Amino acid sequence: MPSASWGGAGVVPEDTFVAAPSESTTPSAAAGISSAAASLSANEAATIGGLSESQLQRGFWLLAITTFAMNIAMNVSQTIQPNFFRDVIGMDGAQNGYLIAIREIPGFLLIFVAAFMLRLGMARAAAVSLLIAGIGFALFAQSNSFLALVIPTLVSSVGYHSWMQLQPALGLSLAKRGAEGTTLGRLSSIGFAGSMIALGTVLAVLLWIEHHYGTLKGHQDNALRAFFVVGGIAAVIGAYGIIKFPMSSDDREMARSAPKITWRKEYRLYYWLAFLDGSRMQIYFAFAPFVLVEEFNVTATVLTTLLIIVALINWRMGRVIGQMVDRFGEQRVLTVGYALHGVTFLGFALSNNVWLLYGFYILYNFLFLFSVGTTTYLRKISRREDLAPSLAMGVSLSHVTAIVVPIVGSALWDRLGYQFPFLFGTVFVVLSLIATQKINASKAEHAAMHV
Prior knowledge:
Blueprint lengths: L28 H10 L3 H4 L7 H37 L3 H11 L1 H4 L1 H8 L4 H18 L10 H23 L7 H34 L7 H22 L6 H9 L10 H28 L4 H29 L1 H21 L3 H13 L5 H10 L5 H11 L6 H13 L2 H18 L2 H11 L2
Helix pairs in contact: 1-3, 1-9, 3-8, 3-9, 3-10, 3-13, 4-12, 4-18, 6-17, 7-8, 7-10, 8-17, 9-13, 9-16, 12-17, 12-18, 12-19, 13-14, 13-15, 14-15, 14-16, 14-19, 18-19
C-alpha cells in the first residue's frame, strides 16, 4: 500500500547517530535538506556508522533528494489513477477493490523479495526498487482495459513496496538516538515538498484542459497517460541518486551477515500493529477516493486540489509530528492518531455532505504522518541488524489481509452501500487503539532484558 507514504507512503526502513536538523523550517525542499545536513556536528559524525562527516552529509542529501523524487513519482501516478480508471478504463468502485487486492500481493510477499534484495545492501536494494517502480508506473500509459492494468499494477507494486521499508531504514541509519522521529519527520516533510510539485503540475494541466475544452471527460486521456510516464522517469532519477548513498565497511559486512528474514517473539507487538495498520489502510486506499469520485462526482481537479492541501499541511507538519514522537513517546502520539482515524472512518460512513467528506479525506491523509511512531518504536526495541528485515516483515504482515479485506469491502459496497466498508474498517481502528496501550510496557520489558 502506498504511503506517499504514502509516504508513501508511508511505511516503513549505532549507538551514535547524526544530529537532528535545526528547529527552523525552510521555505523549500533544498533549503530543508541543506539545513538538516548542516546540523551534523563533527564530533558525532566521526563516530556514526564508521562514516566521515562529509559522507554523512552526502548521505542525507542523497536520501532526501531520492525521497523527493519518489514522492513525485508516486503522487503523480496515484493522484490520477481514480479518474484514469473510471473515465478512461471504465472501472467502477468494486472493480477498483479487486485491482487493489491484486496490487497488494507483492506487499504480502515482500519479506521474500527483501531476503533477496538486502543481499545487495540497503542502498543498492533501494535503487533496484525504484527502477522497478518506475518501469511499472510508465507501463500504465499503455493500458486500455482492466486486464491490461494487472501487469503494471504488479510491477510498480513490487518496486514501491520495497522502497517503503528501505527508506525509513536508510533514514534511521542517519538518526541520533532520541531524535529518530525528528529525522524521519524531516525526510517526510521533504518528500511532501515533492508531492506539492507533482500535484500542482497535475492540477495545472487538468485546469488548462478543462478551461480549453469546457470538460475533462473525453479530453484528459493523453494527459493522464503522459503523467504515468513522468512518474516513471522521476522514480528512475531517484534510483540514480540513492545508489550513491555512502556505506561503511561495517554496513557492508552487516549486509552480508544480517538475517534476511526476521521473526522474533520480542517484536510481536510491532508485527500486530503492522497487521492492523495494513488492514485499515486497505479499506481507505480501495474505497475513499472512489467514494468521492463515483458517489459524489468529484473531478480530478478537485481531488488533486485536496491532495495539494494535504501535501502543504504535511510538508509543514512532518517534522512537528516527528518531534512529538520524540518528546511524548510513541504510545501517546499513536493513541491520538488512531482515535482520529476512527473519526475519519465514521465520517465517511455517516456523512452525506461532500464538504465534510473533503475534511475527512484531508484529515486521513494527514494522519499518515503519525505512522512514524510505529517505525521508531521498532527502532528502539530491535537489534541493529534486524531493522531492515523487520521492517520488511512488518510490510508483509500489513498485507496479510490485502486480498481478503478489499474483496470483503467490495462485497459490502455492492450489497449494502459504500458506507459499510468504512464501518468494517473501524474494527481495525479499535483493535489498533487497544494494542497501542501496550507500547510503553513493551519498551520497558525490552530495556530490562538488555540492562
